[in-house]
Amino acid sequence: MTREIDGERVHIIDGLLDPVIIGMFERLVVDLPYFRSNYDKSKDEPGRHLRHDFGKSMIETFPLLGGFRDDVLARVRQIDAGRGETIEQFFALDQYFGAVQYPHHDTPGGMTALYFANADWEPDWQGELVFYDKSGEASMLVAPKPGRLCLFNGEIVHRGGVPSPLCRTQRFTVVIKTVPAGHAAVTPA
């Protein structure tokens, strides 16, 4: 499914992984060590996020991660080959009720792939990914459906959704940010 915001496409891909693999991927992500090392606006703002960066050795140790990365990159290149040549960042986020999320944009000229890693998610738990139009209005929501991948231009302003008080777990996401060919990668791919 493809939606548009200000002429930019947001690609929503369901069924990326088999249900058994979705459960395995969730268990992998849930058990990671997370650190308060990520922020949306600046290091001075409150509300750092719990983040785990995937290093090269971990990707080699867990073939599930390498296969996921390769599949996501292939899909990014199908959509826009010029934006997805190099991985800039590959990480997981652990978002919980009460977390602070700010509208932000990602890498200029790059693509962002956001995978909802929870194997189960109830609509009342909320946590939707919010996209903003150029006037700053929230104009699109993407529900955190298990196994869903969302691909979009990293320059679109967006905000990760925070789970509601009814949610009995955290909202786990896996993010791959790419940059166009010729840009240096920040983290190992």
How would you describe what is shown here?
With 189 residues, the chain is α+β, with helices and mostly antiparallel strands. Helix content is 19%, strand content 32%. It has 3 helices and 11 strands. The strands form 2 sheets. The chain has an 8-stranded antiparallel β-sheet with strand order 1-2-9-6-11-5-4-3, with helices on one face. The chain has a 3-stranded antiparallel β-sheet with strand order 8-7-10, with no helix packed on it. A hairpin with a 5-residue loop joins strand 7 and strand 8. The chain is globular, with a radius of gyration of 15 Å.
N-to-C SSE series?
A: EEHEEHHEEEEEEE
Q: Let me know the average pLDDT.
A: 88
Helical coverage, percent range: 10-25%
N-to-C CA distance: 28 Å
Supply the number of helical segments. Answer: 3
| Structural class label | alpha+beta
The percentage of residues in β strands lies in 25-35%
The value of Rg in angstroms is 15 Å
Q: Tell me about the biggest sheet? A: 8 strands, antiparallel
- Tell how many strands the DSSP assignment holds: 11
What's the arrangement of strands in the largest beta sheet?
A: 1-2-9-6-11-5-4-3
Shape: globular
Taking pLDDT < 50 over at least 5 consecutive residues as the criterion, the unreliable ranges are: none
Characteristic terms for this protein:
189 residues; alpha+beta; eight-stranded antiparallel sheet; three-stranded antiparallel sheet; 3 helices; 11 strands; 19% helix; 32% strand
Question: What is this structure's SSE topology?
Answer:
Elements: E1 2-5, E2 8-13, H1 19-30, E3 35-38, E4 49-53, H2 56-61, H3 63-80, E5 86-95, E6 111-116, E7 129-132, E8 138-142, E9 149-153, E10 158-159, E11 171-179
Antiparallel strand pairs: 1-2, 2-9, 3-4, 4-5, 5-11, 6-9, 6-11, 7-8, 7-10
